[in-house]
Specification:
heterodimer; A: about 120 residues; mainly beta; 6-stranded mixed beta sheet; about 0% helix; globular; B: about 110 residues; 7-stranded mixed beta sheet
Chain lengths: ~120, ~110
């Protein structure tokens, strides 16, 4: 059983601070990694994906991947109250180069609360 | 939204009745998924499809069946609904790795 683990939270950070969200996965062969944001009562929306070790930045978001440690994280800089949501980590055993997507496995999510 | 429509959005049904949920996409993506989301369990894969008439089971497939007769449509059927199948159901599609979700269907089995 492939597992994706996240701290359920809630994680509370003050407005303007850096929020750090963490995820570990059990399948060492996993190739691609995704972060989704889900507001209460809404569907998950993709915010970041990463395939290679290291950091990937997109605006206020930075995804970090360490395949040796089977660890992926999401940093949110200058956190805003609108960032308050549940963040889902997802892992795909297949790569992105033409193979498409198979069984995307999700963690249970970390609830983030940004305090004004 | 990435061209995904789920119907119905809300449904209340009685125990023992069959229920079919529909997912329709306009993106021509190869892969389609059905997930259910429950408090404390997160998103769990029910079934997925990797092409027309090509489907496979996910983590929680018991009591569910699926069909995909066209690229754009993926149907999820609860053969005889039970109260444990009360949940929010999400359809997702994927072409090159990342998945995009529909709006969800809230199903209540009474």
């Amino acid at each position: 059983q492939k597992e994706v683990e996240q701290n359920s939270g809630p994680l509370s950070v003050p407005e303007g601070a850096i929020a750090s969200l963490n995820c570990t996965y059990s399948d060492r062969g996993s190739q691609s990694f995704f972060w989704y944001r889900q507001y209460s009562g809404k569907s998950p929306e993709l915010i970041m994906f990463i395939y290679s070790n290291g950091d990937k930045e997109d605006g206020r978001f930075t995804a970090q991947l360490n395949k040796a440690s089977q660890y992926v994280s999401l940093l949110i800089r200058d956190s805003q109250p609108s960032d308050s949501a549940t963040y889902l980590c997802a892992v795909n055993p297949r790569g992105h180069s033409g193979a498409g997507s198979y069984q995307l496995t999700f963690g249970k999510g970390t609830k983030l609360s940004v305090i004004p | 939204d990435a061209g995904i429509t789920q119907s119905p959005r809300h449904k209340v049904t009685e125990t023992g009745t069959p229920v079919t949920l529909r997912c329709h996409q306009t993106e021509n993506h190869r892969y389609m998924y059905w997930y259910r989301q429950d408090p404390g369990h997160g998103l769990r894969l029910i079934h997925y499809s990797y092409g027309v008439k090509d489907t496979d089971k996910g983590e929680v497939s018991d009591g569910y069946s699926v069909s995909r007769s066209k690229t754009e449509d993926f149907l999820l059927t609860l053969e005889s609904a039970t109260s444990s199948q009360t949940s929010v159901y999400f359809c997702a599609i994927s072409g090159t790795g990342e998945a995009f979700f529909g709006q969800g269907t809230r199903l209540t089995v009474v």
